[in-house]
Design goal:
Order of helices and strands of chain B: EHEHEEHHHHHHH
Strand order of the largest sheet of chain A: 1-2
Family (chain B): Belongs to the GST superfamily. Zeta family.
Number of helices of chain A: 7
Radius of gyration of chain B: 17 Å
Shape of chain B: globular
Pathway (chain B): Amino-acid degradation; L-phenylalanine degradation; acetoacetate and fumarate from L-phenylalanine: step 5/6
EC number (chain B): 2.5.1.18, 5.2.1.2
Strand order of the largest sheet of chain B: 2-1-3-4
Order of helices and strands of chain A: EEHHHHHHH
Cofactor (chain B): glutathione
Organism (chain B): Dromaius novaehollandiae (Emu)
Oligomer: heterodimer
Number of helices of chain B: 9
Number of strands of chain B: 4
């Protein structure tokens, strides 16, 4: 598919972030990333899919390259539209995190999308729930150690 | 207390809605359908009424067991976990991962790049844009399927990946993508369209199918 991420694990190579995350959840189940209750699991997946299918693909590298000077406007349009819907959904589902008080796959999708929103200068003031959850998640070690500013290939000027 | 029948908010030609229609048909789940016309009245998905139901203002939305779900794969996973027979995901985790990988590739990597909302922005470049992204996505998909396919996308059992494939091939045909370079996709699509669940859920047979497109 000529895209990242790809994970080589247990003798296979997987792509598509949510397929990878589901595989990790099913083979290394602790700590869990999906709640036990099917309705809450559905909410986690709904939020994840909204970000992963409904927002990110519309502002990824491949598309923005086609947009030329309209790049910023395009990215802002689709992130804003997606965040308007997401803010409403989260007002129903959120506790400390996206769904209740346990970190789930939805939270793994949220933080990187907020990072993108900031990168494309989207005003986050209309999204207090998104902002609050993002802040709480960025305090967790896993979200810090995986941050773009701390990777082997992070450019020097962007290093934490 | 008798449960209410599930209600599916759907548009006949929406590939995302079709995936869920197939799942409901395969699992033998009776439901009522409320058509949402994405073109009429400026798009009925933008009405205050529908927005209250689904803030994402998109179809499909499924009202079931007292909740409303959107996002076709979240809905299909919920059906799988609450009505497990017949299964739509294999038992083996590696095969499940392949099913999800193929499904996600279509649902995140192809369909969003040629959906109504984007194509409306493309104006006269609409056909070219749709063809570009479907072609690019199908090139990758054909290679993956050559490793995973049996009679269907992953082995010989119908899975969530097949529910995603058929509607995307329908879109490819709609945008006049040449399918000759994708023999595996074509073969699997043909085998699936022989199954009753894929026929009964087809865009040509829905309550809101326009007369001229009816089967």
């Amino acid at each position: 598919m000529k895209q990242v991420p790809a994970l080589k694990i247990d003798g296979i190579i997987l792509s598509q972030s949510l397929a990878i995350i589901h595989y990790l959840e099913e083979t290394r189940p602790n700590p869990r990333l999906l709640p036990q209750d099917p309705k809450k699991r559905a909410q986690v997946r709904m939020i994840s899919d909204h970000i992963v299918s409904g927002i990110q693909p519309l502002q990824n590298l491949s598309i923005l390259e086609q947009m030329g000077e309209k790049k910023m406007e395009w990215a802002q349009h689709y992130i804003t539209s997606g965040f308007q819907a997401l803010e409403q959904i989260l007002q129903h589902t959120a506790g400390r995190y996206c769904v209740g008080d346990e970190v789930s796959m939805a939270d793994l999708c949220l933080v990187p999308q907020v990072f993108n929103a900031e990168r494309y200068k989207v005003d986050l003031a209309p999204y207090p729930t998104i902002t609050k959850i993002n802040k709480a998640l960025l305090e967790l070690e896993a979200f810090k150690v995986s941050h773009p500013s701390r990777q082997p290939d992070t450019p020097t000027e962007m290093r934490a | 207390m008798a449960s209410e029948k599930p209600i599916l908010y759907s548009y006949y030609r929406s590939s995302c809605s079709w995936r869920v229609r197939i799942a409901l048909a395969l699992k033998g789940i009776a439901y009522d359908q409320v058509p949402v016309n994405l073109l009429k009245d400026g798009g009925q998905q933008f009405s205050a009424e529908f927005k209250a139901l689904n803030p994402m203002k998109q179809v499909p939305a499924l009202k079931i067991d007292g909740i409303i779900l959107s996002q076709s794969l979240a809905i299909i996973h919920y059906l799988e976990e609450t009505r497990p027979n017949p299964r739509l995901l294999p038992q083996d985790p590696k095969k499940r991962a392949q099913v999800r990988m193929i499904s996600d590739h279509i649902v995140s990597g192809i369909q969003p790049l040629q959906n109504l909302s984007i194509l409306e922005q493309m104006g006269e470049k609409k056909m070219e844009w749709a063809q570009h992204y479907i072609t690019s996505g199908f090139q990758a998909l054909e290679q993956i399927l050559q490793h995973t396919a049996g009679r269907y996308c992953v082995g010989d059992e119908v899975s969530m990946a097949d529910l995603c494939l058929v509607p995307q091939v329908f879109n490819a045909e709609r945008y006049k993508v040449d399918l000759a370079p994708y023999p595996t996709i074509t073969k699997i699509n043909k085998a699936l369209l022989e199954l009753e669940a894929f026929k009964v859920s087809h865009p040509s047979r829905q309550p809101d199918t326009p007369t001229e497109m009816r089967a």
